[in-house]
Amino acid sequence: MVPTSLIQFIYSTNLVSRTTAELIAQRFAEKSLTKNEYLLKAGQIADTYLFLETGYLRAFAEDVSGNDVTTAFYGPGQMVFEVASFFGRSRSRENVQALISGWYISYAQLNELFHALPEFREFGRSMLARGFSELKVRMLSTITETTEERYRALLAAHPELFQQASLKHIASYLGVTDTSLSRIRASLYKK
């Protein structure tokens, strides 16, 4: 049975009717991963468009020195897919690792819906626009904000993330070492 949270998520965009949202949601299948299991590994072609129902996902890539750098965190109620690989049908340069329960649809099924339901095309465009907007905001924050400001913003926006992700992964997401993040945290708690 498809969760109401997926139907509500699709419907909440105001781009599809409730009936169409239910029809679309019926095409999704349940997917569960265990802690540290991969939804996508670098080198694979992404074929999963996932609605994250519970848990968290971490996307990361390896830098030129072989260190993993967290590129994104995803929480409940978000759509998760590696956009360049999924739509470009190219090998991913990112890994997506998780502890989750969610609902997914394959690339072929998603395209079938895009062609069959104009409302769903608008939903898809909305998801892409939202994702690119979030990416731009994150990119600009790394340029215009201090690490402490980025840490505070992440903590304010997603406090539950700090119980799900390791400080090492949060530090790499913020673009600092875990030692630097520890110093920032210590100085904030002293204030």
From TrEMBL:
SMART domains documented for this protein: cNMP
Pfam families, per the entry: cNMP_binding
InterPro entries for the chain: cNMP-bd_dom (IPR000595), cNMP-bd_dom_sf (IPR018490), RmlC-like_jellyroll (IPR014710)
Domain Cyclic nucleotide-binding residue range list: 24-92
Highest taxon listed in the record's lineage: Bacteria
PROSITE patterns given in the database record: CNMP_BINDING_3
Coiled-coil ranges per UniProt: none
Protein name: CRP-like cAMP-binding protein
Naturally occurring in which organism (per UniProt): Mucilaginibacter pocheonensis
